[in-house]
Structure prediction request, 696 residues.
Amino acid sequence: MSSISEIFGCMVFNEDVMRERLPKDVYKSMVKTIEQGKPIDSKIADVVANAMKDWAIAKGATHYTHWFQPLTGVTAEKHDAFISPVGDCKVVMEFSGKELIRGESDASSFPSGGIRATFEARGYTTWDSSSYAFVKDGTLYIPTAFCSYTGEALDAKTPLLRSMEAISNQSLRIVRLFGDSLTQRVTPTVGAEQEYFIVDKEIYDLRKDLMYSGRTLFGAPAPKGQELEDHYFGPLNSRISAYMAELDENLWKLGINSKTKHNEAAPAQHELAPIYATTNMAVDQNLLIMEYMKKTAEKHGLVCLLHEKPYKGVNGSGKHNNWSLATDTGKNLLDPGKTPAENIQFLLILAGIIKAVDEYQELMRISVAHAGNDHRLGAGEAPPAITSVFVGEELEEIIDAIVNGKTYTSVKASVMDLGIPTVPTFRKDTTDRNRTSPFAFTGNKFEFRMVGSSQNIALPNIVLNTAIAKEFKEFADILENAENFDIAVAQILKETFTNHRRVIFSGNGYSKEWEAEAEKRGLCNLKTAVDAYKVFPMQKNIDLFKMFNVMSSVEINSRTDILFENYSKIINIEALTMIEMASRDIIPAVSAYIADVAGSAAAKQAVVPDASCFMEEDLITELSELNNAAYKAVKVLRNTVSNAAAMKDHILQAEAYHDDVIPAMNDLRDKVDRMETITASEYWPLPTYGDMLFRV
Ligand code: ADP
Ligand code: MG
Prediction:
């Protein structure tokens, strides 16, 4: 491998390449576009497009694609060659500014949640010039936003960019109040730690459930799980380590700062964390990380599972979405800082964030609601379905002092009189970690820990950016007109911390007691994705997104529809897969085993007429009872699925999948898993949990 610094970003049309390849004025205008999120000047688009094309061709590209994020949860791309005919038998390589900036495609096969009738199939992709283009697999990838003919967003990126604009504008108003006249833009920064499982490809190929649904729908636990806690941070085996090395190299070439890798809590589970980036880039990069995790695995005879819960009984996978606010002057607004004046600004920002989480608890929950994530949230391995904030002991004491109008004495014995709004500096990292909290302050950033491993992180960040922007706006509206700034800030802090104290929780988020306590505090507990989707279009959410033009009510309603539909489709696929596996593989295999056991009993007695056949009789009785029960459970499942599938109303349908189909699936699984433990290995048609978790 060449040195990292040589290969890093070598496939990215980044600032260095732009400086090298663009005329000076064009380069300057591009940098402005990127840094300030300004629209690109159409005059320079042709120049940029041409430079991009020449650079891409030098990197081996023959095609370009507008790369976008439709609401399918995965990315989409359609490749066009750069060629353009000259005369009858010649072509030249061409790429115009128009082709760079805008693409048109038939959008009718992408989910639109009813926004678009099929006869209005046009969809447009527009260049997101604030995220770098890159070359991969012989194609120039241009990150784009995707909207309908009538201008509604049909993707994850458009509202994300709008939300970034909102938080920048409102954060600017806050820093201006504290005398910062230099900052021109505030960007939310995101670092998403990605968890995943690895399974051997040969074993994977024998599991239809993994192939169709990404998780095991059957499987008795292996004798060993994660109880010895020997996998977390354990040494990497050579196969995994070779895989990770190639993955890193692929990501570095694309300019992704893949930094940390380690074994996770469950066997065959791992994590990759990149260094944080501006939110829209972080979203693009996370999608590429997930894509390369899968692709690179194939080359090593492995398969990467990004599902939130591939295996019952061992930890599932999540994504820690680390979030902060950075100024273009290089400050982290969530850094508590050292001088009292800056701390007031920090406390105000903290107050805004806490208020946002409390007021928009449902939205935070909705943003991570996904059929796969239902297996993790509240299951004692990931945060509960209740949204709360952990700020650490020291900040919590400061907040309580403000609420109670008391003097705060810091651990270091510095004193603050809260009559005047000054706060002593406090040491960083006096906070211990609380890994059971859904939203935890970790020194200079918040870590949103409810996100599922397979999800696009756009929606969680859209929600954070927009909800927090709204609170900053409310504060700025008051403070910009305040007669006495100091008194007004002190008032806001006291009021906000008092009113939203209920959302701060430092205890064990996995415990039953917290569920009861949260209910007393009036916090919402939307247990399932279906419960969460129902409240997406509630008025306060529509008002919030409308306030900053992040999403219209039409867009919210269409997204809600898509979420319900998607949920139903996922459960439908899982149920059909179970029916097929049980009917065609498992039940016949158990029958064959029963027949052979019966045959061997008969053979035994043919030789020794009095020989005891206790084992055979007992085993056959138990297995045939279970196999009959499994057969019945398949029938029940088949009925519930066809009932659910026939429903027209999206909400009722999702409810039917959740309330009727899932219990029928669980019942079938129970029978099958019990049979697995008493059927001879050679008869069992599927690799076991032990094979999948320990043979990598
Ligand atoms: P830990 O979770 O153990 O605290 P790190 O401090 O290394 O781990 O951070 C985890 C993730 O948080 C990394 O992806 C890192 O880049 C990201 N991160 C660190 N600082 C920020 C920040 N200011 N904004 C957003 N993400 C950040
Ligand atoms: Mg972390």
About this structure: The chain is about 50% helix and 15% strand. The pocket of magnesium ion (ligand 2) is lined by residues 193, 320, 447 (CB under 6 Å). Residues 413-418, 420-430 have pLDDT under 50 and may be disordered. The longest helix spans residues 553-607.
